[in-house]
Design a protein that fits this description.
The complex is a heterodimer.
Chain A (H helix, E strand, L loop, with lengths): L3 H58 L1 H9 L34 H12 L6 H16 L4 E4 L6 E5 L6 H11 L6 E5 L10 H14 L4 E3 L7 H7 L1 H8 L4 H13 L4 E4 L3 E3 L10 H6 L9 H6 L45 H7 L13 H14 L1 E2 L5 E3 L7 E3 L1 H10 L4 E4 L8 E4 L4 E4 L13 E6 L5 E6 L3 H5 L2 H22 L1 H11 L6 E3 H12 L5 H8 L7 E3 H12 L7 H21 L6 E3 H14 L6 H11 L6 E3 H16 L24
Parallel strand pairs in A: 1-5, 2-3, 3-4, 6-10, 7-9, 10-12
Antiparallel strand pairs in A: 2-13, 5-6, 8-9, 11-12, 13-14, 15-16, 17-18
Helix pairs in contact in A: 1-16, 3-6, 4-6, 4-9, 8-9, 16-20, 16-21, 17-18, 17-20, 21-24, 22-23
Chain B lengths: L1 H26 L7 E3 L3 H7 L6 H11 L7 E3 H13 L8 H11 L7 E2 H10 L6 H11 L6 E2 L1 H11 L2
Antiparallel strand pairs in B: 1-2, 3-4
The chains are: A alpha/beta, B mainly alpha.
Chain lengths: ~700, ~160
């Protein structure tokens, strides 16, 4: 007979055990739920990254076209005088924005921050004035800036901002405004992509003038007029400053060239934008003429084994970009060699390791006169990698991937403790690698979308121990739960992916057909994944993304034609447009815009018929589109609708659409959305 | 004959599993070198449809780790182990009704909800306790701020829909 007490204990034990088990079950279920959210978040991140890098690759393919344009880039015939006449620019009485007077005082700089927070715009006259003073200041400074923690107790290092003013304001709010006791180093990429690059530049330059010893700026790969053409700064400036925009851009181009290349803290911590190569030479870096590196973009694309040219370098500050000595012409090979096929072949991630021979082997090709500019390219474009060694960075088209031993070598050679760099976005805003000897710091939070990533900055005290602060500069995000955050970011990523898929509908159809030998109209989902990857070359985990891209797959097969039709329905916003044309437009738009802006050398927003013809001839020869001179002339004339002898950007894009149509006419018959299948070859552009 | 067909069927299934596992692994292979941080293994396994407990996860990690743990798991070691897990249909996910019963065990007086304090107590003191971060995450989505409690039936319904 069991005593009542033991029965009691028996029961309570079971009860407790039951709640233990119940809790364990709930936790198990919850952890799985969270893991699936995390996976979706990572997939989303990968989508953004691959699309962005793929965009960069497209650009790389056109790189020699750009360099040819740079060669022929003639400056405006009315030369601006070196000391620009900004004083003659009148500021109207009703201007309510901030006013600057020089020499700048701290309250001017603070007032700027406040004014921009209130969405005011700085008048062009003050912008130009500020830029001139900035240039005067920068010219006296060395390539490698030295900072000491004896003077300012702490130094705050910030990474890429990319035009996101909110993040800068947040940093100043959370960390405090710059002052003699609070030093700052901004590590490049202040501009492009975000919408307030101009405001960020004004603030950074203002503080630099006010606290020259404590506020420093390193150059990033986006402090470069060629990159700006493509990624947004040029557009932003011209939009905000319609009258004086081109003057501003011109002087900005110069200011960028005068920025520091690197900052050294207490001779122990090296701060630079991208990374290092396996032959770091700080002495050379300190001595070289940094101002001569007008752009690293063309240089970076040139380096794949072609010796003897150094485009992007000029001989004098105001020399036009093609300051190449006679006889040094940019050679025109059209692809970057990659040992495993096209840069974005299957298993694209792997390609980054395999592509290109190890850099040491290429030493022999480089001439002494140009090797110094490659040092600069390395500094601005390189990325760390986990493997040992040092190889060309074919993903970016410039700089290299450097391994842990390269870092170790650098630190030992110059007796340094660690390296701080930026250049790569990280979900947490920062990341250590190479046994904590390299710190990546990225300060643009929500870079892709609200909730996509945190930003961070790092503080160094006299002990030089890095102290990292993370943030996400958007009030709304804090209130969103993780579930919601992921949906919004995911939506945006998926949208981009849909667009890319749509842009390749024809190719996809071709691939699907290959998997459907029996012409049943169906393919397995596995085949779908393979086909999509072989067309898009994005290296994405398609099977993981399948639920979001393919609607209700019945028994593991997919009716591919109707899937493609669904894609088209999602994308079509205009009627009467053949989808193949829309595809091409989608595919080429960023490049075409960049080409337009280069052709439009005076940034007027228009190009002349003549300029258009010349540009088109070049483009078609590089892209192997066969079209006669007459056709181009006809095209040019028909594009110019109002017959004023000028073409604006939309007309320009239209031209490409029409010519691509005439060259791909034969393939449109299978396309789900094809309307008229006129196979008569080069069709006349339709009159509107 | 039947044996051959069966074997061929299994081979196809295994081939599919291999591709699925590879894709899931790649999502977290940030350096594109066929390794992932050991801390992501749990996420990968769960993303493949499994629902192991922390203890079971720990055992799995021991199986796929190097002899001298490096903090990284290599794909070559992960693939066979994970394939076996999928073939054996181990760590099946928890059906909705079982989950509901678990909540009901914690709510013996059948009020239909748990208070915030009760939830915290159970999740951080019993079973395989949550970390503070996990607890905060759960609270942010589960707790109805007005009543400061979790109506678990509604919560389950909400979470399950999202899980699609």
């Amino acid at each position: 007979v069991q005593s009542p007490i033991s029965i009691y204990y028996h029961l309570t034990f079971h009860a407790e055990f039951a709640s233990f088990k119940a809790a364990a079950l709930i936790q198990r279920w919850y952890r799985r739920y969270m893991a699936r959210l995390e996976t979706r978040r990572c997939c989303t991140w990968r989508i953004f990254q691959s699309i962005e890098y793929a965009g960069q690759q497209d650009h790389v393919k056109l790189h020699d076209f750009f360099s040819y344009l740079v060669d022929h880039f003639t400056p405006n015939s009315n030369h601006e005088s070196e000391y620009d006449d900004y004083e003659s620019i009148e500021v109207p009485d009703n201007y309510t924005g901030p006013r600057l007077s020089f020499p700048l005082l701290p309250n001017h700089a603070t007032a700027l921050v406040e004014a921009f927070r209130l969405k005011q715009q700085l008048h062009a006259r003050y912008v130009l004035n500020l830029l001139h003073e900035t240039r005067k200041h920068l010219v006296q400074l060395p390539n490698i800036n030295r900072v000491s923690t004896c003077y300012s107790e702490e130094i705050t290092v910030c990474g890429d901002l990319h035009g996101q003013l909110d993040d800068l304001i947040f940093i100043f709010h959370k960390n405090g405004l710059p002052s003699p006791e609070r030093a700052y180093v901004f590590n490049g990429d202040f501009v492009d992509r975000g919408k307030e690059s101009v405001e960020i530049l004004m603030i950074l330059f203002a503080f630099m003038l006010v606290y020259p010893k404590e506020f420093r700026l390193n150059r990033g790969n986006h402090e470069d007029h060629m990159v700006n053409l493509r990624y947004g700064l040029t557009k932003e400036v011209m939009h905000k400053y319609k009258t004086h925009g081109k003057k501003i851009l011109k002087i900005l181009q110069d200011v960028f060239c005068w920025l520091h290349l690197a900052t050294l803290v207490d001779e122990k911590v090296l701060i630079l934008h991208g990374g290092v190569s396996d032959m770091p030479d700080l002495e050379l870096l300190a001595k070289l003429d940094r101002h001569k590196v007008l752009t690293t973009e063309v240089v970076s694309c040139e380096r794949e084994g072609r010796a003897g040219s150094c485009p992007g370098a000029g001989s004098a500050p105001w020399a036009p970009p093609p300051g190449l000595p006679r006889g040094h012409r940019a050679s025109r090979s059209s692809s970057i060699p990659c040992s495993c096929g096209p840069p974005w072949g299957p298993g694209a991630g792997r390609c980054r390791q395999q592509a290109g021979p190890p850099r040491a082997g290429r030493r022999g090709f480089r001439k002494e006169t140009i090797s110094w500019s490659f040092q600069v390219v390395d500094i601005l474009w390189s990325d760390p990698m986990a493997q040992e060694g040092c190889k060309a960075n074919t993903v970016r088209g410039g700089g290299c991937y450097f391994g842990p031993s390269v870092t170790e070598q650098l630190l030992q050679k110059y007796n340094l403790q660690f390296l701080i760099r930026s250049h790569e976005r990280k979900p947490e805003g920062y990341e250590f690698c190479h046994r904590r000897k390299v710190l990546t710091i990225f300060s643009a939070s929500n870079y892709y979308e609200v909730g996509s990533n945190r930003g961070a900055y790092v503080k160094l005290g006299p002990a030089l121990t890095p102290y990292i602060v993370q943030y996400q500069a958007n009030k709304e995000t804090h209130r969103l739960t993780m579930r919601q955050r992921i949906s919004r970011v995911e939506e945006s990523a998926l949208r981009s992916l849909w667009e890319k898929l749509f842009a390749s509908s024809l190719d996809l159809l071709g691939e699907f057909k290959k998997h459907d030998a029996d012409k049943t109209g169906l393919i397995t989902l596995s085949a779908w994944a393979e086909a999509v990857e072989s067309v898009l070359h994005l290296g994405l985990p398609w099977r993981m993304l399948k639920p979001q891209l393919v609607n209700s797959s019945t028994d593991n097969t997919l009716e591919y034609k109707s899937w493609l039709e669904d894609l088209a329905k999602e994308q079509l916003s205009r009627e009467n447009i053949q989808s193949s044309l829309l595809e091409t437009l989608y595919r080429n738009r960023p490049n075409l815009e960049a080409i337009f802006r280069i052709t439009d050398s005076d940034h007027s927003g228009f190009i002349s018929l003549d300029e258009f013809r010349q540009t088109w001839k070049l483009f078609s020869s590089h892209m192997n589109i066969d079209i006669t001179d007459d056709c181009i002339c006809d095209l040019a004339r028909s594009i110019d609708l109002n017959r004023d002898g000028h073409i604006d950007i939309n007309e320009f894009l239209e031209a490409f659409r029409i010519v691509e149509q005439s060259s791909t006419e034969g393939d449109t018959s299978d396309c789900p959305q094809a309307t008229n299948t006129d196979n008569s070859g080069c069709s006349k552009p339709s009159k509107r | 004959m039947a044996d051959d067909k069966e074997r061929e069927g299994t081979e196809l299934v295994i081939a599919e599993f291999h591709k699925k596992i590879k894709d899931a692994f790649e999502v977290f292979d940030h350096e594109a070198n066929n390794t992932v941080d050991v801390r992501e293994i749990g996420t990968i396994i769960r993303s493949l449809g499994c629902c192991p407990s922390e203890g079971e996860l720990h055992d799995l990690i021991v199986e796929v780790e190097e002899e001298e743990p490096t903090g990284y798991i290599r794909f070559e070691k992960f693939l066979p182990v994970m394939t076996k897990v999928l073939l054996e249909k181990r760590y099946r996910p928890i059906p909705e009704d079982i989950l509901l019963r678990a909540f009901e065990v914690l709510d013996p007086s059948k009020r239909g909800f748990l208070t915030k304090e009760e939830l915290i107590k159970y999740m951080t003191e019993e079973g395989e306790p949550f970390s503070q971060e996990e607890m905060e995450e759960m609270l942010s989505a589960a707790i109805d701020p007005e009543s400061n409690s979790i109506r678990y039936k509604d919560y389950i319904a909400m979470m399950v829909v999202d899980d699609g």
